[in-house]
Write a structure and sequence with these properties.
This protein is α+β, with helices and mostly antiparallel strands. The chain has a domain of 223 residues: 3-Layer(aba) Sandwich (Rossmann fold). The protein binds S-adenosyl-L-homocysteine (SAH). S-adenosyl-L-homocysteine binds next to helix 3.
């Protein structure tokens, strides 16, 4: 049994069942035995792979997007480039390399990385040891320096702990993690004995008995942090993640270990846990907060609008032996049966800025 599972079982015996968010938070971020603080889980040898790890072209496109965004903001002398959940720091390294197209931009950049895992922070430090601009770390978005900002994050919001509720007799009961009465070494899902009376379920009016719905308390918190940051200074955020454009009911919590799906409750601390991002909720919260929202755009449309295909062709011409690898990378990032459709980009920005690059294919909602 994983050390964290033993501790969670002891905690449930002492305190009673815990909700899914508490379980997910412990599994991912327990400082001693959590998944992220104890390892570097990314890449082919790890547990899962992400777009920046698949191809340098991904970060390069985001780099060009950052340069254009800085120009759209009127080229401020200092721009805070803040990345949430930077993993191994590869995307930031590709961004800064691509950004050499505009030396004034690179001279203006101050990078802040927001990372919860000491293990990954150390890897980021190595990846960015010769970065062409200052790089530092902050514990949260609100701790990053104030000023005109670009906030970016790839597969960050899918790690924020979610709560789950099941509709029964017209009311919502929270799903909790309990000990299996038939096997005291096993965890199982159960429902709270009483319906929840505090949460606002109004966006789930269409749910019927038996449906499971998910709420991510970190999303409104993230929007609050953005609106606070973008008050008084221009700001633009670009978040890329997987999930539906419109809210959907259903259980999306999943665990990945060594690139294979495992049981969510089987090995807390040893497997990555994520849930799909509800882009409808994120955009709605953003608009309520007074931000202008663009997208979500499918990752494939977004990257192609930024010139991904031309970049692949150029790289292939200068290194013909790499052409096949590059076209495979292009396919992984953009094909509809790979990451192209499931992954989406969304931009949230302070009012008054021009439309961001990359969202030309989708209806704008300001
Ligand atoms: N963006 C990277 C890594 C994605 S994995 C990539 O695309 O390759 C998720 C990352 O977010 C990890 O670096 C993880 O440690 C970090 N993370 C998740 N939740 C966090 C939180 N609440 N605060 C800070 N970092 C967090």
């Amino acid at each position: 049994m994983s050390p964290l599972k033993a501790r969670l079982i002891a905690r449930i015996i002492a305190e009673g069942p815990m909700n899914v968010a508490a379980f997910m938070g412990a599994a991912l971020f327990d400082p001693v035995d959590g998944f992220y603080p104890t390892r570097d889980p990314l890449g082919a040898d790890g547990d899962f792979i992400t777009a920046p790890e698949i191809s340098q072209m991904f970060g390069e496109m985001i780099g060009l997007w950052c340069v254009q965004s800085w120009r759209d903001m009127g080229r401020p002398a200092r721009i805070q480039l803040i990345e949430l959940g930077p993993g191994r720091g590869i995307m930031m390294s590709d961004i800064l390399r691509a950004a050499k197209v505009d030396r004034a931009f690179r001279a203006a950049v101050n990078v802040t990385l927001v990372e919860a895992s000491p293990a990954l922070e150390a890897v980021q430090g190595r990846t960015l040891s010769d970065a062409p601009c200052p790089v530092s770390w902050a514990g949260s978005l609100s701790d990053a320096p104030a000023g005109p900002s670009l906030v970016i994050g790839n597969e960050f919001l899918d790690c924020l702990p979610i709560r789950q509720f099941v509709k029964k007799d017209g009311e919502f009961y929270e799903r909790v993690v309990a000990i299996d009465p038939d096997n005291k070494d096993a965890l199982m899902f159960a429902l709270s004995p009483a319906p929840d009376t505090l949460e606002d379920f109004s966006s789930f009016d269409a749910a019927v008995d038996g449906d499971l719905i998910e709420i991510c308390p970190g999303v409104p918190q993230f929007i609050d942090d953005l609106t606070e940051r973008f008050t008084g200074y221009a700001g633009r955020a670009l978040m890329i993640d997987y999930g539906p454009a419109q809210s959907e009911v259903g259980d999306s919590l999943q665990a990945l270990k060594a690139h294979t799906k495992v049981g969510v409750l089987d090995e807390p601390g040893e497997a990555d846990l994520t849930a799909r991002l509800d882009f409808e909720v994120l955009s709605r919260e953003g608009r309520y907060g007074g931000l202008a929202v663009y997208g979500p755009a499918a990752q494939s449309a977004f990257l192609k609008a930024l010139g991904l295909e031309a970049r692949a062709a150029l790289l292939g011409k200068s290194a013909p032996d790499q052409a096949e690898i590059l076209s495979r990378q292009l396919a992984r990032l953009t094909d509809t049966d790979q990451m192209g459709d499931l992954f989406k980009a969304i931009c949230l920005q302070s009012p008054g800025l021009p439309a961001p690059a990359g969202f030309e294919s989708v209806d704008e909602s300001v």
